[in-house]
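User: My instructor asked us to take a sequence, write out its structure as C-alpha cells, and then describe one feature of it. I'm not sure where to start. Here is the sequence I was given:
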Amino acid sequence: MNKINNLKIKNFQKSFSKSRRIKSFLFLFISIFIGIFPYFSNKKPSLNSLIIISVFIFLYGIFVLSRNFKRDSIQQDLKIDEFTGEFPSLDIIVAARDEQYVIQRLVERLFNLDYPSEKLNIFIIDDGSEDETPNILRKLSKKYQKLQIISRVKNAGGGKSGALNDALRLTSGEWVFILDADAQLRNDTLIKLLNYAFRGKWSAVQLRKSVINGSQNLLTKCQSIEMVMDAFFQIGRLSSGGVSELRGNGQLINKKILIESGSFNEDTVTDDLDLSVRLLLFGSEIGILWDPPVMEEAVETLPALFAQRQRWAEGGLQRFFDYGSDLIFGKINILKKFDIFYFFILQYALPIISLSDLVSSLFFMRTPIYLPISMTAFILSAIASWFGCKRNKDISSLPNSNLVSILIYLLYLSHWFIVIPLVALKMSIFQKKLLWKKTLHKG
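Assistant: Let's start with the prediction itself. The C-alpha cells for your sequence are:
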C-alpha cells in the first residue's frame, strides 16, 4: 500500500491556496488557447483527426459504461442482505447548520435503522445555527439519550471539514458514516452497506445518491437523472480499473484509514472530493453501492443550482491543482492515471475549450471546430443516463425516463459549460476565502 506521510499531507494543505490561483490561470489560459488558436492560425486540426479523437473518447467511454452490465460485476451481485460475523462499531456524523426543516426527520430515521444499538453512536454537529436547529436538537436529546450533540460557534473555522474533524476526535467506532442533514435512508442500509464493505474489502464506500423531490419541477427531475448518470459512470470506472470518488452524503469510511490519510482537509470547499484523491494516493479504493441509495433534496431554483455547482466545480478543480504532481508522478497504476486524465479533460477542460470555440465561431461566422468532441461527450452522458434509469434494481428510487426527458436533460447538462469557465476565471483572479455555502433544505 502506497502510504503518504500524515505530516506531509498537513504541510501540503497549508500551502495549497498559495499556488491555486497560478495553476488555475495556467489551466484557464491553456484551455482558452486551445479553443481559439485554430481561428487565428492555418494549423487548425483536420476533421479526420477530430473524428479519430472523438471515436477514441467514445470507445473508452463505452468500455467504462459496459462494465455495468457484467453479471460478475465487482460489486452489484453480492448477496448483502444479511451481515455475517460480528457487527463493527459505527459512528454516524452529521454536520448541520440551519437545518430546522429536516434535522428532526433525520434523527428519528437514524434511531430506527436496523443495527445493534450498542454498536452505534450518532453525532450531530450544530455548526453555529441561527434558526431553530439548536432547540430542536435539545428536545431530541431528551428523547434519544444516545444522541450526542456537538455545538460550534458560527465562525469556528474549517467549514464543513472543520465540523467533521471536531466530531471525529470524539468518535470511538471502527467506521464512520457521513451524512448530510437532508439524508433519508432505508432501515436496512447500514447492514447492507457494511456487509458490502467487508465482502469487497473496501476502505470506503459511497452510496448512490438519489433525489427525494425529483417530481417537484423540471430542474429537480434533471438532477435526479444526473445522480443516476454519475453513479453509473462511477460503477463503470471502478469495475474497469479506474477511479471512483466519494460524494459527501452517504459515505462510509474506515476510521483508521481516514485518520492516516489526513482526516478532512479544512482548506477545501469539497471535503469529499479532496479525501477521494488522498485515499487514492494512500492506496485505498472506494466502493460504489447502487442499492440501497441515500436520498437527498435537489435544489429547486436556477440561482440555487448555480451556487451549488460553482462550489462543486471549485472543489473539483482544487483537488487537481493541489495533488496534480502526485497524481502524475505518484505510484498509481497507468490505467488509473489514464482514467483520471480522461475524465479531467471531459469534465473540466472540454467545457472551457468548447465555450471558447463557440464564441470564436460566432465571431468569425464559422462552424465550431471541436463540435465532434463535444457531441461525443453529450452522447456518452445520454447513454449513461438512459441505461442507468433502466436498471432493474431499486426501481422506486430511479427516475422515469424517455427520449424526450433525456434530450431535455442533455440541454440541462450544458450549464456545466458555463459554470466551469466561470469558476476557473474566479479562481484565477480572487484569493479564496473558505466559507461554508450550504444548500437550503426545505424538508
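For the description part of your assignment, you could build on this observation: The chain has 14 helices and seven strands. Try explaining in your own words what that tells you about the chain.
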